[in-house]
């Protein structure tokens, strides 16, 4: 039972992981995007409708990622170019994305996606790794999208830890004026970060509809975007911690289906947010600079004031 529970926790964690990794890219650049839920929904509906129309897994995935990119670029136009309030714009994007996705998919609710799409994205055991006792069943007998989540986590860790571009992006989030003085194009870099983040976040919604549920249900993300947003803080803006945190939050989301617990289910749903509040309180009192959010997170950059 424990092995199956942990394997299911990995599946439940995958949408959260993509949402959190995209959120980290957003916030490392100094842009606070509260619209993860909406971007995830738009990615899900675009991939779902494309799957129904084309029965092509590649086109379905690309359509969802493009939808995520466009949604985030729209948010970027509002907050980077027009200097709109990032909190208000983020909530607007979340509401807009959820409403538009539900409207577009409503005529096709509960229609199963073609088998040649879901079949390709079904669980596939990796050679050798999948034969490792216990660990193999949990981590290496999953969908190809789950494996991509592993790779992306490691790639983002390396990117922010050792690459020049990662250091530039971190500098933009911490001190955009200094980055600008060093000839780094702050606004262009933030737009690029938003585009990449939009594609990553959209993958979380795509996984839900193409590989996990394989049908459309109203508000299919069910608040996972908000949990991913909390997970960004929980992980202290670090990809590896986001991976571990997504596994923890994913396990909390499904534990009631595998174990009989003497506590209300609503309390279990609340636990990820409780943990986030505790971690946020800890980080606010931490003296470690690596535990702090980007210094200019949520603050528009006005080049003429530098």
Separation of the first and last Cα atoms: 59 Å
Q: Return the average pLDDT rounded to an integer.
A: 90
The helix tally amounts to 13
Instruction: Please give the domain count.
Output: 1
Oligomer kind: single chain
List keywords for this structure.
306 residues; mainly alpha; ABC transporter involved in vitamin B12 uptake, BtuC; two-stranded antiparallel ribbon; 13 helices; globular
Concise overview:
By secondary structure, this protein is mainly α.
Describe the structure.
A two-stranded antiparallel ribbon has the order 1-2. The protein has helices at 2-28, 36-54, 57-81, 86-105, 115-118, 135-139, 144-162, 164-174, 176-181, 186-212, 224-234, 239-258, 265-285; strands at 124-125, 141-142. The chain has one domain (2-305): ABC transporter involved in vitamin B12 uptake, BtuC (Orthogonal Bundle), CATH 1.10.3470. It has 306 residues and is an all-alpha fold.
Q: Which helices and strands appear, and what pairs or packs with what?
A:
Layout: H1 2-28, H2 36-54, H3 57-81, H4 86-105, H5 115-118, E1 124-125, H6 135-139, E2 141-142, H7 144-162, H8 164-174, H9 176-181, H10 186-212, H11 224-234, H12 239-258, H13 265-285
Antiparallel strand pairs: 1-2
Helix pairs in contact: 1-7, 1-10, 1-11, 1-12, 2-3, 2-4, 2-10, 2-11, 3-4, 3-10, 7-8, 7-12, 11-12, 11-13, 12-13
